[in-house]
Amino acid sequence: MVIETVHLGKRYGNLQALTDLNLSIEPGKVFGFIGPNGAGKSTTMLILSTLLEQSEGEAFVCGYNVRKDPASVRQSVGYMPDFFGVYDNLTAVEYLEFYAGAYKIPASKRRALVSDLLELVNLSHKADAFVDSLSRGMQQRLGLARCLVHDPAVLILDEPASGLDPRARIELREIMKQLREMGKTIIISSHVLPELAELCDDIGVIEKGRLIAYGSVHEVSNRDTGQSRMQLRALRNLDKAGLLLASSPYVHQLMDYMGGFRFYFQGTEQQKAELLQELLDEQVAVVYYGDSKKDLEDVFLAITEGVGME
Prior knowledge:
This is Probable ABC transporter ATP-binding protein. By secondary structure, the protein is α/β, with parallel strands linked by helices. The chain has two domains: 3-216, Rossmann fold, CATH 3.40.50; 228-306, Alpha-Beta Plaits, CATH 3.30.70. The protein is 36% helix and 28% strand. The chain has eleven helices and 14 strands. The strands form three sheets. Strands 6-7-8-3-9-10 form a six-stranded mixed beta sheet, with helices on both faces. The protein has a four-stranded antiparallel beta sheet with strand order 2-1-4-5, with helices on one face. α3 (92-102) packs across α4. The chain is elongated.
């Protein structure tokens, strides 16, 4: 495993910020952390980056113990916080060259390295621009380039899409895909949950310092919550369909959706089939009747329901 935590915990005085966290992330995987502010995502990332010491348990990055061998961990990790400091009086090239020097990259190799990094994050045209003149999205991409200066095996990205407009998010997502193809192991946290679904191999849902769901996007998205979300589209007799669905004891939270209905169904597969037959008997011209794909917002809300009330 490239990243592994064993019964990891963190206390701040009487506050238990992280409790018994056990993660195993394989090489080349993209792992997404889902959770509200204060859930423990940033605490975990800071521990893995050697910027915060845990109170209990152990954590390993590329086989190195984060507490016993922090120098080796730092050479293996590129960490990007949600907001990072920049040097306003430096150009993009100077900024990256400064960090290349900090990582002891030979001076003879820095210019070519910086050029390659700027090309990777689509900032070659801004090489000579001052950092403070760059947009928020460009600064985020420059920060990502900084994380890659020493060619780390692991990238730890805390809310990289925070504060970005839709176009900047798309640009950042495309860069993430390139990094995944390059074999980087990536941990990424984000409140833009659908983007995690597209990027990540595995996700973890964390709430109040505890990991409450963990697995592949497919596994977590299809957890048994006791009901399935369904969708109905029809060409004719939608009014009859609406009345029939509203009267069904198996249908909950019926709503208009894309020229039809979306609803939650709590019942067996046989009862689903019987409901469809009733619709057909009412001459409803059904075009689609089946499961409606859940996004990560739905999954998160279903999994964490009631957790905050404990």
